[in-house]
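Repro:
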Amino acid sequence: MCPLLSDDKQTHLSHVILQALQGTSEGTFRGVSAQALKEIKRILTDSMKAEEHIHQLVRSRLNSYSRRIPEGSSEWDVLYRKTYEEELRKRQLG
């Protein structure tokens, strides 16, 4: 389980995603919906863990600058966004 969302919230979100997929032509699948729900939940968890890892990496990188950049400042926000997007591209996630 990912610590960013409770198990109940992950389960609810999995059901919402499954219902949305079933309502499209791309959402046709065979098998038990429980398996699909489990896979959706796994993907959500993996994605949130990757996002949290990137967030920590970016914060660490910004804190390692020789000149302290105050968190919340416009400069910090710009550098954070730029560095975050760079990390997403490196991992082919964005």
